Amino acid sequence: MGLSTIAKGVSAHRKALLFGGLIFFLILALGAGGFRWWSHQEFEKFVGRIEGFSQQELTLILAMDKLEKDLKAEFDAISFKEGASLAENKKHLANGEKTTDEFYSKQMDEYLPLFEQEIDEVDQFLARRYLWLWGKEKEFLSLITSVSENATKAKDADAVIIERSKLLSTVSFVTQSDSIAYLGFIGDLDKIIASVSATTKALAPLKKYTTGYKFPEEDQIKTLYPDLYQVLKNYKALYSKTYEMFIAYANKDYAKTMKLSDEITTISKRNFDLVIDWDPLNRPFFQSELDAHLQGLAAVNLYQENRLGKVSLGERRLAASALVWAIQLYSLDHKDKYPKASNIDAAVKVLTEGKYLPTDLSFDQTTFSLSSSEKEYQLNFTDEVTGEVASITASN
């Protein structure tokens, strides 16, 4: 074999090695590119599921808003004035109790589980560390992680609030029902008091207070809210003595009637406000909700501004929710009053200056309308993704 032949053989060998190397790198590049493409597709699916949760949240918020308005309407219709219709008051109270049950069911069976589903979805996606995601995508995930962390705090705080609210509303319905019955008795006093049996029948709801009655979950209330427990003891004392006084009067035992009347006068000076300080529970809940929606809004803006994908995201519903929670925090610091504002721009300015909203908050304020008072805020907008016309209300 000549040198030229050997040289040609070496050259061909090098070309073969070079060609083989190019094929390897090409396969590697195609494989990496394919994995990157697949990773982004998984990212997009995740973003779509997050958007779905956001849409469900708005649907539930609007449903609960309606139930709260219905409940307020029923309570406002109850009259404690002399001459009020006992039948009408009972009807409105029963409707209010039914609506309250529906409200708590909506919260416990749908709203809190939605929180859990969204948190689980985020945790599962973040656990897929092998996905090949780049700069802005990772930044988006970091914001979503913050959303999930604050949603967890909000869920835990809300669960406690719901539990305590149910506890107290049950007691409240008992006292209101008894007050309505007593008011009906007073309205027909002249007709009833002449008969012992009629008096006993009309005051039957109050008789339980003379026999050691305990309110629903009274022991738990005693532990959680000692001051409220004392109020319940005041109700027991008032209604037991009231029952005994009118029964004594119907039996023409006037000496006992006068003695009980004096006792009732003393008892009536006690505290009968069935209220607790909700601030320690509400504040962390409102703040966590606000932080979650602000981070969510930032994530949406990042996704859209950097064109990270093709999923349509609802900026307005997140902005509306952030505003509502900021307004609720404001009310805690201003004796349950809401900021004075005639439009969204003015409301955002007040909330920003008060440091309830960040100065870099970014959303299209022209897409919102506002009706407000010191006791109620209503934000109106059209969801840019679903096309739904929505009104979210904050009220005391």
From TrEMBL:
Key words of the record: Membrane, Transmembrane, Transmembrane helix
Domain of life the protein comes from: Bacteria
Transmembrane spans: 16-38
Protein name: DUF4012 domain-containing protein
